[in-house]
Design a protein that fits this description.
By secondary structure, the chain is α/β, with parallel strands linked by helices. It has a domain at 2-187 and 226-250 and 294-313: NAD(P)-binding Rossmann-like Domain (Rossmann fold), CATH 3.40.50. Helices cover 45% and strands 16% of the residues. It is built from 13 helices and 12 strands. The chain has a 7-stranded parallel β-sheet, with helices on both faces. α6 links the parallel β5 and β6 (180-185). It is globular.
C-alpha cells in the first residue's frame, strides 16, 4: 500500500509523514518542489522502504501521470501550497500558479488515475485536500466561529488562491465523482516550521536579541492549532471522512498576537536567560500593519468531533513551551534554513533592522 503526499518536505507535510509512518508503517511517496520552505533533510532519517522523495511540481501534469502510474497510490494528501500571506501580498503570481493551477493539474491527474481503477480500488480511493480557515475571511470580536457552512470571503491573494482550490476540489467531486475531502485548519505551530511565520520568527529573533515585529496593535486574534493535533485530524479525515464533505480543524486556543509574543518571551526568559535584557518583551516593536489584515479567525470543530472523533490534545501554553524547546534543541536545523534568502525576506518585509 502506498500513500501519495504532495508538499511532504514542508512544515505540516513533514509532521504528517512522520506520524503516518510511525503509526501505519505504510510507504509514502512524497512529491515536493523543494522551494525555500521545503527541506529534504526533515525526513532523511526515514528508510527508503517507507519514504520515497520525488522532486517535482504539482503543476507538472506529465510528471503527475508518471507518479500515479508508477506508484499506484491508494489515496493522496494534497499539502503542497504557497502559504505565507505576506509573501502573497508582495508576489501573488506564484500563489495563483502553485495553489490554483497546481490544484487543477493534480485534480486532472487524479481523475484520470481514478477512472482507471477497479471498482474496489475506487471505493477506497480518497483525495484529501488540506486548506485554511482564512478562506472564510475575518470575524468580529463577538461573531461565532466559522462553520463548514460559512460563506467564503477571502481577503488576501493567499486565501483567495486557497478558496479557488477548494472550489475546484468540490467541483471535481460534483462533476466527476472524484472522492474528495477538504479540511480547513486554523493557524498551525510546532516543529519544523519555517521561521517566516509568527511563532518561530519570534523564537529565533528573541534568541538572537533582535527586534520582534508585531503588526499594528497586535490585537489580531488567531486560533492556534498544534501541528500534531492537525496531523491526527488529517489521518482521521483520510480514513473515516465522507467523500464530498469538508471538516474544520482547530485547536480551541484563541490568542491575540501580542499575547502570544509575550508568552514566548516569558518562556525564553525562563529557559534561556539573557543578562543583556531584563526581559525579551522589551524587544517587541509594533510595525505598520499589513494590507487587508484579517482581525480574527476561529473555527467551530463540532462536525469533525462528532463524525470522526477528533479533539485537540495539546494545550496552547504547553504547545508553545514544546515548540521553544524544539528550536532550542535543533540549532543545526535552524542554521540550515536561516539562509540569505530568509534574511533578504525579513529585510524586504519588515525593514533593514530585521535582516
Amino acid at each position: 500500500m502506498t500513500l501519495l503526499v504532495t508538499g511532504g518536505c514542508g512544515f505540516i507535510g513533514t509532521n504528517f509523514i512522520r506520524l503516518h509512518v510511525s503509526e501505519r508503517r505504510e510507504r509514502i511517496v512524497n512529491l515536493d518542489k523543494l522551494t525555500y520552505a521545503g527541506n529534504r533533510r526533515n525526513l532523511e532519517d526515514l528508510p527508503e522502504s517507507l519514504h520515497v522523495l520525488v522532486e517535482g511540481d504539482v503543476a507538472d501534469g506529465e510528471l503527475l501521470k508518471r507518479v500515479f502510474s508508477e506508484y499506484k497510490p491508494r489515496a493522496l494528501v494534497h499539502l503542497a501550497a504557497e502559504s505565507h500571506v505576506d509573501r502573497s501580498i508582495l508576489g501573488p503570481g506564484e500563489f495563483v500558479r502553485s495553489n490554483i493551477v497546481g490544484a487543477f493539474t493534480l485534480l486532472e491527474a487524479a481523475r484520470g488515475y481514478y477512472e482507471g481503477l477497479t471498482p474496489p480500488e475506487r471505493e477506497s480511493f480518497r483525495f484529501l485536500s488540506v486548506s485554511t480557515d482564512e478562506v472564510f475571511g475575518s470575524l468580529g470580536p463577538e461573531d461565532p466561529p466559522f462553520t463548514e457552512e460559512s460563506p467564503y470571503a477571502p481577503n488576501s491573494p493567499y486565501s483567495a488562491s486557497k478558496a479557488a482550490a477548494d472550489h475546484l476540489v468540490r467541483a471535481y467531486h460534483k462533476t466527476y465523482g472524484l472522492p474528495v475531502i477538504v479540511t480547513n485548519c486554523s493557524n498551525n505551530y510546532g516543529p519544523y516550521q519555517f521561521p517566516e511565520k509568527l511563532i518561530p520568527l519570534v523564537i529565533l529573533n528573541a534568541l538572537n536579541l533582535k527586534k520582534l515585529p508585531v503588526y499594528g496593535d497586535g490585537r489580531q486574534i488567531r486560533d492556534w492549532l498544534h501541528v500534531s493535533d492537525h496531523c491526527r485530524a488529517l489521518s482521521l479525515a483520510l480514513e473515516k471522512g465522507r467523500p464530498g464533505e469538508s471538516y474544520n480543524v482547530g485547536g480551541g486556543a484563541e490568542s491575540a498576537n501580542i499575547d502570544t509574543v509575550r508568552i514566548l518571551c516569558e518562556l525564553l526568559d525562563e529557559k534561556r536567560p539573557e543578562p543583556a535584557v531584563e526581559s525579551r518583551a522589551s524587544l517587541i516593536e509594533h510595525v505598520r500593519d499589513r494590507p487587508g489584515h484579517d482581525r480574527r479567525y476561529a473555527v467551530d470543530c463540532r462536525k469533525i468531533e462528532r463524525e470522526l472523533g477528533y479533539r485537540p490534545l495539546v494545550r496552547f501554553k504547553d504547545g508553545l513551551s514544546s515548540a521553544v524547546d524544539w528550536y532550542l534543541d535543533n540549532p543545526r536545523w535552524v542554521e540550515s534554513v536561516v539562509s540569505g534568502e530568509y534574511r533578504n525576506w525579513n529585510r524586504r518585509n519588515y525593514g533593514e533592522s530585521y535582516e
